[in-house]
Amino acid sequence: MSLLSVSDLSTHYAAPGGVLRAVDGVSFELEAGETLGLVGESGCGKSSLGKTLLRLVQPTSGTIQFRGEDVTAIEGKRLREARRHIQMIFQDPFASLNPRHKIRQILSDPLKVHGIRDAGERDRLVGDMIDRVGLPRESLERYPHEFSGGQRQRIGIARALILNPDLVVCDEPVSALDLSIQAQILNLLAGMKAEFGLSYIFISHDLSVIRYFADRVLVMYLGRIVESADNASLWTAPKHPYTHALMNAVPDPTRRRQAAPLTGDLPSAQDIPKGCRFHPRCPLATDICRSVEPRLESSAPGHAVACHHAPVN
Amino acid sequence: MSSTEIGSFGVEVERAETEARLGPSRPQPEPKWSNLHAPDARLACADAVVVRPGARELRLFVANPNALAGLLILAAVIVAALVAPVLFPGDPLAMTGQPLQWPGQSAGYPLGTDQLGRNVLAGIFHGARVSLVVGLVATALGLAIGVLVGAIAGYFGGWIDTLLVRVIEIFQTLPSFVLLVVLVFIAQPSAPTITLGIAIISWPQVARLTRAEFRAIREKDYVMAARSLGFGSARIIFGEILPNALPPLIVTSSVMVATAILMESALSFMGLGDPNVVSWGSMIGAGREVIRSAWYLTALPGLAIVLIVLSLNLIGDGLNDALNPRFAEDRR
Amino acid sequence: MSRLLVVEGLSVRIGAAEPVKALSFSVGAGETVAIVGESGSGKSLTALALMALLPRHAQAKGSIRLGGRELLSLEERAMREVRGREVAMIFQEPMTSLNPVVSVGRQIVEALQTHEHLSRRAVRARAIELLDLVRIPDPRRRAADFPHQLSGGMRQRVMIAMAVACRPKLLIADEPTTALDVTIQAQVLDLLDTLRRELGMSLLLITHDLGVVAQWADKVVVMYAGRKVEQALPDALFGAPLHPYTRGLLSASPRLKAGYTYRDGPLNEIPGSIVSAKGEKGCPFRPRCAVARPSCAGFEPELLPFAPDRLVACAFPPTFVGGEIVAPLGL
Q1: How far, in Å, are A129, A176, B222, C282 from residue A95 at the CA level?
Q2: What distance in Å separates residue C220's CA from the closest CA in chain B?
Q3: Whose CA is closest to C206, among C167, C236, C231, C176?
Q4: Could you give the CA distance from residue B22 to residue B3 in angstroms, rounded to a whole number?
Q5: Which residues in chain B touch residue C15, judged by CB atoms under 8 angstroms apart?
Q6: Predicted complex ipTM
Q7: How far C247 CA lies from chain B's nearest CA (Å)?
Q8: Which of the ends of chain B has fewer CB neighbours closer than 10 A, N or C?
């Protein structure tokens, strides 16, 4: 049984210009111990998907099965119980910590809320966690603004892990950090995964980070998954034209001064093109692409694509 | 001399040196990941001066001469209010002296007496008590109601928000002072009813402000983090959002105290004040008839009101400058 | 190649701190020079110093010569003639750099009118030409749009149009693509390079993205803690980085290690952060340096030339690189 099973999940927002279909029919499974990479550009819905999984945003339709339980619509106490097991690490280290709370409070409040009444026990867990993320104990008495971005992200990781969850959704955890700090945080995340036996959903727009960190990758475009493959296959044999374009757009010293692979802007999730969502920018688009939306179909073991022109087995 | 060899994108460093300093560069599969300790964390924490949120703002506030002046005047008024029963025991409304003596005319009455022979200085000191108590309590009450309503409206949104906004609007469309007069008149003038009345007309402004702050802060990542950790609404509202929504509320509250004092004085002037206590407003009102000949009877309490309102406004400005993050960069 | 911009010994002081220290570099005519650094390296302040747009409490010293003319000694009035006409700048966040209440066409017209004296019709026509030059589709209609109606990539193009309106000789791009998606990044960088060639401009590209540098730059300057620590041509830099910081950056970057995943092992990290050296003497990189020696704490290393256009500021650079002996010139 998979740890997480998502079926036809959609999250639509009401917006002045029309309905914003941020996530529009997404299905996938996540096994325990896996790191699933979610990659795509703005408007693809990866962040909304992450928030929907945590029920920070209400799904419009579809189901989420987590640890065998249907968590799509639970509320109250059941939701709080479920939240122990799935946590999130946020992108902006400067906005994800309450500036008025000391670090000790930031880390021990979750324990308080989830019933750890003994203050001594809480202190022990908090101290242990701060050690594990590589910060000295004095940090506990300080406020977030006294720390650098990388250090704050460590605190964010500590907070996410203090309840010992099974699944952690990492929403662009290193995108706001300097390159030299990114490596530190990625190593920390890898270490925590091994130590705690975690599963990750790793959301990023940075393909190279995904390439390093994910076991399996989902490529999203305008609210849908357009390609799903394990890491190695995706990089050696990408099948969807958008995946190709994404990879070619990453600046690469071997392609000095070559023209950009894709023209046109990212369309808005309020105004989704008919047929295949990618057809306005796709070099392979034909008539069928303009009228019929392709389904995500398996084209090789463990490799699924949503494209009319992808080779299918 | 050690040498280092560099391959195309990798680095092979002198193993012994780095390992001695940083710990092993390849992680050993064991519980303690020693190479993950950020050495700078120790340095940064050691260097960093422990600056609690609020300490910097306090320093900025105290460095502002206007704010300090305001604070001093307010302190003087508070002291006057506190020592009033000691310096002037007995009822300040007692008619003890010769009527209509000018300030300085008689040794026992440094600020003179009114037409009923009451000690003006005693009146000023005792009046301070009424002004301060009504001002502070009414503001506190208005803040309490306003913050509660605004927080609930701002945090929950939806129909709760719509409903509460309508309630706020109803209160704001009624002219506030007129409403106050009506309320006090119906409920019979006394210090408690005046205080309550002022609180009732001042909470909508607070609620609006709080609602705006809550709507903004609600979208912040740390609030989302709190929700994802399973925090209940009450904990999020009071523990996470409210402490961050305070700065504009603090600034507003000083002005609210000034307004409350003015309102109380106006009511007393009109004769709708508490008849059993001396208030600056009532002194001005009583001195109305002899304003041509004994203008000091209106001027002196009037001056007291001006001073306390001025001091509160200066404090409010000082708080605004200290708490407003936008000014922080320029000052350095 | 003639040198359009020569910066010598530029230092910026803010209060007690010196976020840019003794920086020297040059940009040739038609060249793309990239300044690489992370937060705290002083690269953005350098760009602002070049435009004389430093915050009020900052002081700049040294020499900035653009086309032979010394910029630091210019009065504000004279500097205003220089800005826009000789040197222009584009910023990272197009949404906050464009005036939200004025249409984009109007903003370009304003940029033009500052330096050129043309009739109203001519200026409008030129504005639409510029929108076309930066490849905005349907420029005549788009000129009436407001910034919030455009996507991030389009706004960045509008900013580029404003910057090149008066044909400056030098365009400074401060992290122009950091806020953009990767497919749009590629388009914008391509556009900048095309404009550089078509308009005969030089481009000073300030970025933290090594891939961008590798693909687009003619010369790379690496900054750390306000100082230049390495300068090289991109091939040389990526093939054989000499300064420990550059070496650390390249080995910490997941992009440059194909096929290596977290299951294979950790990324080679640079421990600590930029604040590690606060208040310390000696080499600013020492607390994070993998090959630092005790003597590194005593003095700041000088920039030594290893080849023409190859400078390294390290007291103990590697002596053996890729099978060859490497040594500073003159030794």
Answers
A1: 21, 11, 6, 34
A2: 17
A3: C176
A4: 19
A5: 332
A6: 0.88
A7: 7
A8: N
**Partner-chain contact A183 C215, CB within 8 Å:** no
**What does the alpha-carbon distance between residue A214 and residue C262 come to, in Å, rounded to a whole number?**
8
Interface probe, candidates C270, C286, C321, chain B, greatest B C-beta count within 10 A: C321
Cβ separation B329–C291 shorter than 8 A: no
Contacts of B35 in chain A (CB under 8 A): 187
| CA distance to partner chain A, nearest, from residue B262 (Å) | 35
pLDDT at B19 over 50: no
pLDDT score at C321: 63
pLDDT digits (tens, 9 = 90+) for B101-126: 888 877 778 888 888 888 888 888 98
Q: How far apart are CA A229 and CA A301, in angstroms?
A: 9
Q: How far apart are CA C58 and CA C61, in angstroms?
A: 10
Which position has the token pair 């970025």? C207
- CA B2, B8, B9, B15: dihedral to nearest 10 degrees? -20
Instruction: Summarize the confidence of residues A1-28 as an average pLDDT.
Output: 90
Binding-face residues of A in 238-297 toward B, CB within 8 A: none
Q: Are A167 and A198 in contact (CB under 8 A)?
A: yes
Whether residue B41 and residue A184 make contact (CB cut-off 8 A), yes or no, is no
Which residues 110-129 of chain A have a CB within 8 Å of chain B?
A: 110, 113-114
Rounded CA gap, B208 and A93, in Å?
30
- Locate the chain B residue with the closest alpha carbon to C269: B25
How distant is the Cα of C295 from the closest Cα of chain B, in angstroms? Answer: 14
Confidence (pLDDT) at C159: 93
Confidence of residue C17 (pLDDT cuts 50, 70, 90): confident
Q: What is the pLDDT of residue B30?
A: 30
Average pLDDT over residues B80-97: 83
Is C275 in Cβ contact with B40 (below 8 Å)?
yes
Confidence check: pLDDT of C278 > 60: yes
Number of inter-chain CB pairs under 8 A, A vs B: 110
Cα(A28)–Cα(A9) distance, integer angstroms: 9
Helices of type H across chain C: 43-50, 76-82, 94-97, 104-115, 120-133, 139-142, 152-164, 182-199, 210-216, 234-239, 244-252
- Would you state the structure tokens that stand for residue A231, as one six-digit string? 């890491």
Is there a contact between A266 and C184 if contact means CB atoms under 8 Å apart?
A: yes
Q: What is the mean pLDDT of residues B198-222?
A: 94
Mean pLDDT computed over C155-162: 92
Give the pLDDT mean for C296-319: 84
Domain ranges across chain C: 244-331
What pLDDT score was predicted for residue B207?
96
Chain A touched by B53 (CB under 8 Å): yes
Contact C247 B11 (CB under 8 A): yes
Are C253 and A208 a contacting pair at CB < 8 A?
A: yes
Task: Find the mean pLDDT for residues C301-327.
Answer: 79
Amino acid B193: pLDDT: 92
**Among the listed residues B317, B250, B255, the one whose alpha carbon sits nearest the alpha carbon of residue B61:** B317
Q: Which of A184, A190, A259 sits opposite C262 (nearest CB)?
A: A190
Count, in order, helices (H) and strands (E) of chain A: 10, 12
Strands across the sheet with C17-28, in order? C17-28, C3-14, C58-66, C69-70
- Do residue A265 and residue C269 have CB atoms under 8 angstroms apart? no
Angle, helices C104-115 vs C152-164, to 10°: value is: 20
Contacts from B244-250 at CB under 8 Å and sequence distance 24+?
A: B244/A98, B244/A99, B244/A100, B244/B213, B244/B217, B245/B151, B245/B210, B245/B213, B245/B214, B245/B217, B247/B323, B247/B324, B248/B209, B248/B213, B248/B323, B249/B143, B249/B147, B249/B206, B249/B209, B249/B210, B249/B213, B250/B319, B250/B323
The answer to whether B33 contacts A134, with C-beta atoms less than 8 Å apart, is yes
pLDDT of residue A253: 65
